[in-house]
UniProtKB/TrEMBL annotation, chain A:
SUPFAM superfamilies per the UniProt record, alphabetical: Periplasmic binding protein-like II
GO molecular function: transmembrane transporter activity
Name listed for the protein in its UniProt record: Glycine/betaine ABC transporter
Matching InterPro entries: ABC_Gly_betaine_transp_sub-bd (IPR007210)
Superkingdom assignment: Bacteria
Any single Pfam family the record assigns to this protein: OpuAC
Any one GO cellular component localisation term in the record: ATP-binding cassette (ABC) transporter complex
Organism taxonomic ancestry: Bacteria, Bacillati, Actinomycetota, Actinomycetes, Propionibacteriales
Source organism of the structure: Tessaracoccus lapidicaptus
Automatic annotation (TrEMBL), chain B:
Superkingdom: Bacteria
Taxonomic lineage of the native organism: Bacteria, Bacillati, Actinomycetota, Actinomycetes, Propionibacteriales
Annotated compartments: Cell membrane; Membrane
Keyword Methyltransferase: no
A Pfam family that the UniProt record links to this protein: BPD_transp_1
Membrane topology, as annotated: Multi-pass membrane protein
Family designation: Belongs to the binding-protein-dependent transport system permease family.
Keywords of the record: Membrane, Transmembrane, Transmembrane helix, Transport
Name of protein: ABC transporter permease
Organism of origin: Tessaracoccus lapidicaptus
CC per GO annotation: plasma membrane
TrEMBL record, chain C:
UniProt cross-references to Gene3D superfamilies, sorted A to Z: MetI-like (1.10.3720.10)
Native species: Tessaracoccus lapidicaptus
Membrane-crossing residue ranges in chain numbering: 31-52, 59-87, 93-115, 136-165, 185-206
GO cellular component: a single term: plasma membrane
Protein name per its UniProtKB record: ABC transporter permease
Topology in membrane: Multi-pass membrane protein
Alphabetically ordered keywords of this record: Membrane, Transmembrane, Transmembrane helix, Transport
Length: 310, 220, 236
């Protein structure tokens, strides 16, 4: 797993040798520039570096990949909780992360920009074409986790809201709460304006549709929030996820992004994981994290045992 | 408590990660602050501006510093090197003043006597100045250690794992016990390291046992 | 250094300097949060510091508080208060007020202790009430050290106020978090530079205030110009 004893001299030498390496790219990954090849464990091949978003649900999936590979004798290195897409994709493209759980729709939008694809298979087909050189997407899973606009049950009843387009009926000002990156992404206020002609204010809340966002909804500080469909808090807080009738959100299936360092055998292991994951499965995994407060490693291990992949 | 029983291995791992960032930062701070402080003490004309610069440096907020450092020295943003460099900046900024104060507190009569009995300049440093300045310098090292332990948590915001990861993760998942654990373990770690430094200080300066004083620093 | 010029370009974009999300508005928010938080902290710290300092008791207690408080991660307090109070400025204000207390308290307390014990005794001897001793004698004499505490507290708060944007839409930290999440380095760097400039400006202002306070407390300039308490070791 981790090698703190390797890190100490490494960190020291890195800190002491700082002046020598000015002008480097600060966005490059630490493993690309920090770690000399000799620091890798004495295995035949380099370990597969697995990353995850700074999002507990994504970390669980990354941990499942890691344990599934370890069960088959692969050596893996975990670089979890890195940040959002704009933060980690450059590191993947630079080749310093080998495997990353992604979501087909948002990933396609990141690489392609505007696209007309909305349905599961269209998105996946386009995604395969949009992948930069040196990378590939493995088979997509049936499991989905996608953005959705959410309101409280009370607010939905008050204005008769079922679909996003129903928001037209609301005559009071609307404020959308979401992670700050939504302000510039197509899923935020811009998309609402372009696709639905609905104008909303924006309040950044940095917990990824977590408890603070839910609290803000309930307190009435915001009326509309972006919460992922796999988030168990939608059910536990009796929130209403509005149907995206204007096709703003792309189908968003779990899909692994892999570098060339992930060999065919390893890819087959990950494909088996994706295959085994049922459409609503992420909600259950997430519920274990939020409600049972179980660590990602335990949730991953239990799931793999249940699927006979441990 | 249920959260802790299920997650203590992770807490332990993050605690180690926290130490791996804290210890090199404090060590580097001491290594850099000693010669700088000695210089500032011996040459007041250099020392004045140096101390003023240190005070200004300490005024730089942590999150911005973490973001500026990669630009200045070329380390990757998400790396322990960036974290350690930032912590070292604060450590040096705080410690230089302690070192100057420490050397300044050495009794002039003692120094004159040491020169009179034939100590060389190097001998003066190692056998007279440093040992006598040690209690004051150590008080500074204690302050630096404690505040460094607290500062390391900010690294979680740029993707460098530490006990601070418990704060951000607990926040996202809405697990109050996880956040509280993060706060409590961080403070406990700081107090343990502080106690260890007090013990080390007592071992190093047995003659000062009766004059021990706490690290109350009012103005930086 | 191309990033610095990008940051510069970010700052120069038209519209950046006006409107509710513009730099002046954010800076004003940042200063307001800082000021109110220090004020809130002072409401607790100043009376407590006067009580402890006037009685000349509780040295160990204050030292322990300072030591422990230094290690409390503000990020942790902020998330706890955030989960409790929701979005809005309350959670960061409370966190920053807590952050300000130890430095303010220690400033008042050490300021009182630094006064020669004979002076308040003499004031009592000529018939001043305890309240008059505090207001007319001890507070003016302690002023430079108290302002020193204010300076330390203000700097800690203005620096840490960047974290406010983690749970609310306040202050200059917004640029840092928005930039951090989307790896918009120019925005992060530009935001950082504004915060650093603000902190340095406040530091210079408060240093001047401290010098002024020193003139008030000691018009004849008899004490050590550094403002620090003369160490006993200085005496032969």
């Amino acid at each position: 797993m981790n090698h703190p004893h390797l890190l100490i001299p490494l960190a020291l030498s890195a800190a002491l040798g700082l002046a020598a390496c000015g002008g480097g790219d600060p966005l490059a990954s630490p493993s690309a520039t920090d770690a000399p090849a000799s620091s890798a464990p004495a295995a035949s091949a380099d370990p597969i570096v697995i990353g995850s978003q700074d999002y507990y649900s994504n970390e669980i999936v990354a941990e499942i990949y890691a344990q599934a590979l370890e069960a088959e004798g692969y050596e893996v290195e975990r670089q979890f909780r890195i940040g959002q897409r704009e933060a980690y994709l450059p590191e993947i493209e630079a080749g310093s992360i080998d495997l990353f759980p992604e979501y087909s729709g948002p990933l396609l939008q990141y690489w392609q920009g505007e696209t007309d694809a909305r349905l599961t298979d269209d998105v996946y087909t386009e995604l395969q074409e949009a992948v930069p050189e040196g990378l590939r997407v493995l088979a997509q899973s049936d499991a989905t986790d996608q953005d959705s606009y959410v309101v409280t049950r009370e607010f939905a009843d008050e204005w008769g809201l079922e679909k996003v387009s129903d928001l037209e009926k609301v005559t009071t000002p609307l404020t959308l709460g979401a992670n700050s990156e939504a302000e510039t992404r197509p899923n935020g206020p811009r998309g609402l304006m372009d696709k639905y002609g609905i104008e909303v204010g924006f309040t950044p809340i940095e917990d990824g549709g977590g408890p603070l966002t839910v609290k803000a909804l309930k307190d009435g500080d915001i009326q509309l929030a972006i919460i992922y469909t796999a988030d168990p808090s939608i059910a536990t807080n009796d929130l209403v996820s509005l149907e995206d009738d204007g096709g703003l959100f792309l189908a968003s299936h779990l899909v692994p992004v892999a570098s060339e360092d992930v060999d065919d055998n390893a890819a087959a292991i990950i494909d088996a994981v994706s295959e085994a994951m049922a459409p609503e499965e992420l909600v259950e995994l997430n519920a274990r994290s939020v409600e049972e407060q179980a660590p990602a490693a335990d949730i991953a291990r239990d799931w793999l045992e249940q699927e006979d992949m441990a | 408590m249920t959260w802790l029983t299920g997650n203590w291995p992770q807490v332990l791992e993050l605690l180690v990660g926290h130490l791996v960032l804290t210890v090199p930062a404090v060590g580097l701070s001491v290594l850099l602050a000693l010669p700088l402080g000695r210089l500032a003490w011996r040459l007041p004309r250099v020392g004045g501006p140096l101390l003023a610069a240190a005070t200004l440096l300490y005024a730089v907020p942590a999150l911005p510093l973490l973001i500026v450092i990669p630009v200045l020295i070329g380390t990757p943003l998400r790396s322990s090197a960036t974290m350690i460099a930032a912590l070292t900046v604060y450590g040096v900024a705080l410690l230089v003043r302690s070192v100057v104060d420490g050397f300044g507190a050495v009794d002039r009569g003692v120094r004159d006597a040491a020169v009179a009995v034939g100590h060389s300049p190097t001998g003066m440093l190692w056998r007279v100045d440093l040992p006598l300045a040690l209690p004051v310098i150590l008080a500074g090292v204690r302050v630096v250690t404690v505040s460094t332990v607290g500062l390391v948590t900010i690294g979680a915001l740029i993707g460098v794992p530490s006990l601070g990861s418990l704060l951000t993760d607990g926040f996202q998942r809405g697990i109050v016990a996880e956040v509280v654990t993060g706060v409590v373990v961080t403070v406990a770690l700081a107090l343990i390291l502080d106690a260890a430094l007090v013990l080390a200080g007592k071992a190093l300066t047995p003659w000062a046992a009766r004059r021990a004083r706490g690290p109350v620093v009012v103005s930086r | 250094m191309s990033l610095l010029s990008e940051a510069w370009a970010w700052l120069a974009v038209e519209g950046r300097w006006s409107g509710p999300a513009g730099i002046p508005a954010r800076t004003a928010q940042h200063l307001a949060v800082t000021g109110v938080a220090v004020l809130l902290g002072a409401v607790v710290a100043v009376p407590a510091g006067i009580l402890v300092g006037h009685a000349r008791r509780g040295a160990g207690w204050v030292a322990a508080l300072m030591g422990g408080a230094r290690a409390v991660p503000s990020l942790g307090l902020l998330t706890l208060f955030g989960l409790w109070l929701g979005i809005g400025v309350e959670a960061p204000l409370l966190t920053l007020a807590v952050l300000a207390v130890p430095s303010l308290l220690a400033g008042v307390y050490s300021g009182f202790l630094a006064i020669d014990e004979a002076i308040p005794q003499a004031a009592r001897a000529v018939g001043l009430s305890p309240g008059q001793v505090v207001v007319l004698v001890e507070l003016p004499l302690a002023l430079p050290v108290i302002v020193g505490g204010l300076r330390a507290a203000t700097l800690q708060v203005v620096a840490t106020a960047t974290l406010a944007a983690y749970t609310s839409d306040y202050g200059l930290g917004r640029y840092l978090f928005a930039g951090l999440k989307t790896r918009d380095y120019a925005q992060m760097l530009a935001g950082s530079l504004i915060v650093i400039a603000l902190a340095l400006a406040l530091e210079l202002l408060l240093a001047a205030l401290q010098r002024a306070a020193r003139r008030v407390a000691d018009p004849a300039h008899t004490s050590d110009p550094s403002g620090r308490r003369p160490s006993r070791k200085d005496h032969p």
